Amino acid sequence: YNETYARMDLVLFGDAMEHICRISRIVNRPRGNALLIGVGGSGKQSLTRLAAFISQYDVFQIKLTPTYGMADFKEDLFNMYFRVGLKSAQVAFLFTDQHIFDERILVYLNNLLSTGVIPDLHSDEDKDN
To answer: What pTM was computed for the model?
Structure first.
């Protein structure tokens, strides 16, 4: 992992290894998703990135900026769906509580997790193509 991506210095004690195994097992299931809860700085993101790497998944995470809005979020989701649907990429979507800048995002995430369909993500023109 460190040879391909930004260096990640981890101490992989027994519990961390068990968590990586659990996350890998979940990620490898069809439509697998997990909600990781814990104290900030406990390694949830690092272990998820490592588990995704082990499973040969790309990690997708939104990048918030001061001007980031709902249109940007929908564009990011559209691009992720494009990668997954048309290019058959394996993607792990990493989303933290810090990414919730608007409560409407939770509706999109609920749709993504429950049905996989986000109603107003694609325009009529995109659907025709």
So the answer is: 0.76
Rounded-to-integer distance, Cα 1 and Cα 50, Å: 7
- Length of the chain in terms of residues written: 129
User: Using one digit for the tens of pLDDT, what is the confidence trace for 98-116?
Assistant: 899 999 999 998 988 888 8
Q: Are 30 and 90 in contact (CB under 8 A)?
A: no
Distance of CA 31 to the CA centre of its chain: 12
Helix (H) or strand (E) holding 31: none
What is the separation of C-alpha 91 from the centre of its chain, rounded to a whole number of angstroms? 7
- Comparing CA positions, the residue from 39, 49, 57, 32 lying closest to residue 94 is 49
In this structure, what token pair is assigned to residue 74?
A: 């929908």
For 22, 32, 47, 92, 127, the CA distances from 19, given in Å and listed in that order, are: 5, 15, 7, 16, 39
Eight-state DSSP code of residue 115: T
Query: Structure tokens of 126?
Result: 């995109």
